[in-house]
Write a structure and sequence with these properties.
The protein is of the alpha/beta class. The chain has 34 helices and 25 strands. The strands form six sheets. It has a seven-stranded parallel β-sheet with strand order 13-14-12-15-16-11-17, with helices on both faces. A hairpin with a 2-residue loop joins strand 5 and strand 6. Helix 18 crosses helix 19 and helix 24 runs antiparallel to helix 25. The longest helix is centred in the last third of the chain and has 24 residues.
Length: about 1000
């Protein structure tokens, strides 16, 4: 009998199996207008309807027609006006509210003229091909002066917009070939600022943006997956999305080959079924109202899992390896989002009774639950005990359950023959390379009868890194879980810029000589490595280089406050080593002023076979929360370290069962919020822990294969343009192990992609840029002409990016070539151009801001702070009166001009310099001066705007505490004067915006000055 295998990828798959570009198509067009015309032609070829409309009136009329067709209804004029005003336009709705409507509330209630009600669907998510796709181009927004209720509106003309049922849900911005794709990104930001909100605000419905210069094409959601940290909300109308170019995505085929050309992108991503799947199935609106759009490898993996569930069910393969499989997505690539979406969609399949998401450690249980809850509040049931797990398994409404493998194993042992084993169950293992290879895995698969078993891992166990212990039938990931369903390696992730590359320093502080010989026992080796003099040198090296490695002189905004640099982990080989290093940090920092001391925490717990990886796979030892299994000395030491932490942060944790879990969770959160500088660990935090603020791993521990990649990958999460790579500083010679691990988990040629280039290559390029800068743009000569100014911006921006990488190399100290003074002068010119290019020059001239890319975030890294200015003021005061003060005063002016954050405070600083007294403490005098100025300026704003004094001062204090002025919520309305809505010429909205603008300017002026 002939046997027919189900195909892996159907014609309706969102991600195409393998894409081959047609080379002939790449020559069809060149100019921006031709590029746009070709895009429209391709979309019409794919059965999009073209609409020659360019005005809002036509857009609204078409929306009505499309919603009538989708819902098989005819609105009366009054019904439509009411429905449009209340359920679509929403006078006070912004991007967030409209995104919620599309993602969660896509069925709206219409009150009909006869008193009846009818559901109106905006987007059909069940039968996606019921939605109608249309394309428009050159849509025009007329310019308008600022009114009582609205800010000024700039005239704009948008390139190409895709309408879904009449709503603009996808917008495409194009630039001609050869132009930086960031210019299209910047232009969309400008549209969001200047005009998307205009009229009825329909363009605030855009869910996805596409940017292209023909050669390169990327997409991203209206609120990208990390908030752009420098943005501040300016009220509903001016609310901007959270865009950061670092989080734009390439589209790709299922083999992870990027589809960058606009033609290929249009034929794949913008294919009707693909685009509608992305909009209706593969976007996730998080609990904090951020819209995440999944990346192609995440979608491909999800669809492979769903496909395997359906085909194996049809073929009656449940309960066998053929019903499951594993997904190899490298650490840091977003496995939690993929697993959540797979679990969510699997739970909706007909016939599936339960989806169990199984993690292997209690800390991951906590972290994964928080992640799942972030994606959808109440989406999961997590449990604290086996009894609770039993209740959830017996509850038909508990569709997705998070549990640990230990709890599930205990449940199975205590509940033989339970009815849940006969149900149709999907079991998804997170990080499936670990405990599942033992008796628990066998017990689970023996108990359940009709199951699918899926595993996610960033570092699979292959034959090459499999151990020799345990069940020989369960040594590799494929043996335990079945077929590999999808792969996305560390090489793919770094090439796509979804994670950062690594930069590794091997630091040999003490020669240990023959002790590393294999004939010497491991305990003697570790004893030599823990020699007091070596530990002292390693610890002193960390203290001396900590600011440099974690970029502590560079600030950025994090969750409404500004923080300096990043934080780090210190990985030790044993609990004994962790204790010795913790004591040494305390000893060497004892004489430092408190402000200079690193906030150091310690965490470890009991781990069986701590010093040795029995499997041979390079696995890190598993530390549980069983502190009662620690020996008395280790537990007492940990108790003391936790008390140090309590003293530091005003907490009350201990080593009891609950106390230690709560300590772990609090420490985890403080790491993510950049409140802790360094955590000394043994194995905890080296797997499964994600903190985007973590950029450095100090290693005094042997690592290999899986464990090495897992530990290194704690450092390479993308945060912003300041964080350019994961920093590894190894006090052991791990070069061979590193190269082997990268070859194993990437490919044999991966080392050059995964690791940064050597220092010399970066420095040579930097030196060339400095030479070119000095020759083309010598200081003291004006840069004349727009093109010359753009060339300077591009050159200096490239120099800043190189400098950002070089500053973490020890070799760069003293080799900067550019003096601090020259760097400041060039920064001043750069900032002057930035201000000039930001301004709009009226209706007669188009802004050229879109044509240049400014690296302001990198400028802020090297900017001058108030402490430096006060140090110069001290020098100025000491030199005052003897004729040597002019150069110091010039240095102050130059420093202020080169700083983005101090420029708008220049008058304050200059006045202070002129009035500084001979005998007062400068810092105290400065604080008093700033306090007096701040109070005087705030009092003037209160008087001129007629604000409520007490409420305004409380509002401002909150702003300085939180690091931003909040333009939404009730607090801002409570400070406003009462305004009659019937008084002639009054406008509550205009008054509110004016006050927000003044208070924001006041905040920017005085923030970080005290």
């Amino acid at each position: 009998m002939a046997r027919f295998e189900p195909i892996a990828v159907s014609s309706e798959s969102t991600v195409v199996a393998e894409f081959e570009a047609d080379p002939a198509e790449a020559t069809r067009y060149q100019s921006e207008a031709e590029l746009e015309a070709e895009l429209v032609r391709l979309l019409r070829e794919q059965a999009y309807d073209y609409l020659p409309i360019t005005t809002e009136a036509d857009l609204v009329a078409n929306l009505r027609t499309q919603l009538e067709a989708l819902n098989r209804i005819t609105f009366t004029n009054s019904e439509w006006q009411r429905f449009f005003a209340e359920k679509i336009a929403g006078e006070r709705d912004g991007i967030v509210e409209k995104t919620v409507r599309i993602q969660e509330d896509h069925v709206q209630l219409l009150k009909r003229d006869d008193g009846s009600s009818k559901n109106i669907t905006l987007l059909d998510k069940t039968h996606i091909h019921n939605n109608r796709l249309q394309v428009i181009n050159q849509y025009e927004v007329p310019g308008a002066a600022a009114g009582l209720d609205v800010p000024a509106q700039r005239a704009n003309r948008y390139d190409v917009t895709i309408l879904v049922n009449g709503l603009p849900l996808v917008h495409v911005e194009l630039k001609r070939r050869g132009v930086d794709i960031r210019e299209a990104f910047n232009q969309i930001n400008r549209y969001q600022r200047d005009s998307f909100w205009s009229g009825s605000g329909l363009f605030e419905y855009v869910q996805l943006f596409v940017i292209s210069n023909g050669t390169l094409t990327k997409y991203y959601s209206n609120t990208t997956r990390a908030q752009h940290l420098d943005e501040q909300s300016k009220g509903k109308r001016g609310r901007k999305t959270s865009n950061s170019f670092e989080f734009t995505s390439w589209w790709a085929d299922a083999t992870n080959k990027p589809i960058t050309d606009l033609v290929g992108f249009t034929r794949t991503f913008l294919a009707k079924h693909s685009l509608l799947n992305v909009l209706t199935r593969y976007c996730v609106l998080t609990d904090d109202r951020m819209l995440l759009v999944m990346r192609p490898y995440q979608i491909a993996a999800t669809e492979r899992i769903l496909n395997r569930i359906e085909t194996s069910t049809n073929l009656k393969q449940l309960g066998t390896p053929a019903a499951g499989g594993y997904v190899w997505h490298t650490t840091g690539s977003g496995k939690t989002l993929t697993s959540f979406k797979a679990a969510q969609l699997a739970s909706r399949l007909g016939g599936v009774d339960k989806v169990l998401f199984v993690v292997d450690r209690k800390d991951l249980d906590y972290q994964t639950k928080r992640e799942y809850e972030r994606f959808q509040k109440g989406a999961v049931n997590s449990n604290t005990s086996t009894a609770v797990l039993k209740q959830q398994l017996e509850n038909p409404s508990a569709r997705i359950i998070i549990t640990t493998i230990q709890k599930l194993s205990t449940f199975i042992a205590k509940n033989k023959g339970h009815t849940v084993y006969d149900g149709h169950v999907v079991i998804i293992f997170d990080e499936c390379h670990r405990s599942q290879f033992g008796d628990m895995h066998t017990a689970i698969t023996k108990a359940f009868k009709r199951y699918h078993l899926f595993g996610f891992t960033g570092t699979p166990i292959f034959a090459g890194n499999a151990g020799t212990g345990g069940n020989p039938a369960l040594r590799t990931t494929a043996q335990a879980f079945g077929d590999k369903l999808h792969t996305y390696t560390i090489v793919d992730a770094i090439s796509d810029k979804n994670v950062l590359p690594f930069r590794i320093d091997y630091v040999n502080t003490v020669k240990v000589g023959a002790v590393v010989d294999k004939q010497v026992s491991a305990i003697d080796t570790e004893r030599a490595l823990l020699d007091t003099s070596r530990v002292r040198q390693v610890t002193q090296y960390v203290i001396d280089h900590f600011d440099q490695k974690t970029k502590r002189n560079q600030t950025y905004a994090l969750k409404d406050r500004r923080v300096a640099g990043f934080n780090a982990l210190f990985a030790t080989a044993s609990i004994e080593a962790a204790k010795i290093y913790y004591n040494m940090f305390g000893r060497l920092q004892a004489d430092l002023p408190e402000a200079k001391r690193l906030k150091v925490a310690l965490i470890y717990s009991y781990a069986p076979n701590e010093a040795e990886d029995e499997t041979g796979a390079g696995l890190l030892g598993e530390e549980e929360f069983e502190t009662d299994l620690l020996d008395r000395s280790s537990r007492d030491f940990l108790e003391d370290a936790i008390q140090d932490y309590n003293d530091m942060f005003g907490t009350s944790y201990d080593t009891s069962a609950d106390g230690f879990q709560n300590y772990y969770q609090d420490l985890s959160l403080r790491m993510k919020n950049r409140e802790v500088d360094l955590v000394i660990v043994v194995n905890m935090f080296l797997t499964g822990f994600d903190a985007t603020t973590l950029n450095t791993l100090w290693v005094d521990k042997n690592l290999r294969a899986h464990g090495l990649i897992q530990a290194y990958s704690r450092t390479n999460r993308i945060l912003n343009s300041v964080k350019t790579y994961g920093n590894i500083v190894s006090f052991r010679d791990l070069e061979t192990e590193t190269n082997d691990a990268i070859a194993l988990f990437g490919n044999k040629d991966a080392a050059g992609i995964v690791l940064l280039k050597p220092y010399g290559e970066y420095f040579d390029e930097y030196a060339e840029k400095v030479t070119e800068l000095r020759e083309r743009f010598p200081l003291g000569q004006q840069i004349i002409g727009e093109q010359a100014q753009k060339d300077f911006i591009a050159l200096f921006g490239a120099l800043l990016r190189l400098r950002n990488i070089l500053v973490s190399f020890d070799d760069f100290a003293g080799s900067q070539i550019l003096s601090d003074r020259d760097l400041q002068d060039y920064q001043s010119i750069y900032l002057d151009l930035y201000q000039a290019f930001r301004r709009t020059d009226g209706a007669d001239r188009e802004s050229i801001n879109d044509d240049v890319v400014f690296e302001i975030e990198l400028i802020k890294q090297v900017e001058i702070n108030v402490d430096y200015i006060l140090m110069l003021v001290e020098q100025y005061r000491a030199a005052k009166g003897d004729g040597d003060d002019k150069e110091i005063k010039a240095a102050i002016d130059r420093a202020v001009d080169s700083s983005p954050s101090l420029r708008n405070k220049k008058d304050l600083i200059e006045e202070f310099v002129d009035r500084v007294s001979i005998d007062e403490d400068v810092a105290e005098e400065w604080r008093a001066y700033v306090a007096a100025k701040r109070e005087a300026e705030l009092a003037r704003i209160i008087t001129e705007e007629n604000l409520r004094p007490e409420q305004t001062r409380a509002f401002v204090d909150t702003a300085f505490r939180d690091g931003q002025v909040r333009g939404t919520g009730t607090a801002i309305t409570q400070i406003l004067p009462p305004i009659s809505r019937f008084a002639k010429g009054s406008s509550h909205g205009a008054k509110k915006q004016a006050v927000i603008d003044r208070l924001t300017a006041f905040f920017d002026r005085f923030f970080d000055l005290a």
